[in-house]
Give the backbone structure.
Amino acid sequence: MTIELFFAVLFFAFSTTITPGPNNVMIMSSGVNYGIRQSIPHWLGICLGFPLMVLLVGLGFGVVFDRFPHLHQLIKIIGTVYLLWLAWRIASARPESIATGKSKPFSFWQAALFQWVNAKAWVMASGAVAAFTSVTGVYWYQVLLITLAFLLVAFPCVGLWLVCGSALRRVLTVPLLHRIFNISMGLLLLLSVVPVLLEIWRYYFTSSA
């Protein structure tokens, strides 16, 4: 992989990581509800968990799902249901329950494992490997460089959403505004699930038509 191609991978990784998606919506909500310090495990789980996913998908894990597409669809359904539950959890979170410790932020492992049920993460990982590897180069080395690119951009990109959430935390001191924010983030997360729901619908109900 040439230096020019690596910068192209970096740009792809940056543009896909900085844009809204389940990870960024959730880390921003965590910043608002729990602050930066309590959200650090969540942040690290995303920043390390997703590059690991890219590495494993690139080194052949994705082949399993190509061979067994129903297994991939099952994971996608489980992930979608989980995202719907998370959207409800975020939307229904009340400031008083957060303050009393009844509601807690994601742990490192929760955030890392979440990548495997995150539809956007699958698109990013498989898309990057498909677009930036070639049969003429050393495949495993190309996958390592793609993984490195996502690792480099993850910390600042996801961190920016966390910092923005923490900044909003100082503004949303009125409980009503805090509730409105949580409901808005829950709805935004719900909207991110819609394309996946449509894909599942097409797979099971229109593919044979």
